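Input record (one chain):
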Amino acid sequence: MKYEMNEILRTGIVVAVLNLLALILHFCIDKFVVNRLPWDHAYIQDFVSFVIISITILVIAIPEGLPVAVMVSLAYSVKVCTHGSEPYE
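The corresponding structure, as predicted from the sequence alone:
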């Protein structure tokens, strides 16, 4: 059982890192190579979003992290339900 858990953890780490690299590479190619846009400080929010997505993948890949992911998802849903469709007001 411990071997399978280690394999799941390794796979989760690899997938999270590859996902982060793919998101950053796609973003940079699209913004700076294809569209030839200059750097804007607003892009930092996109990079933070990419890191959050990768951390989420990593947390969900860890079997012990599943209850935490479910709890965060439910808390977000409750916040949306109590504040209407705008959770960040």
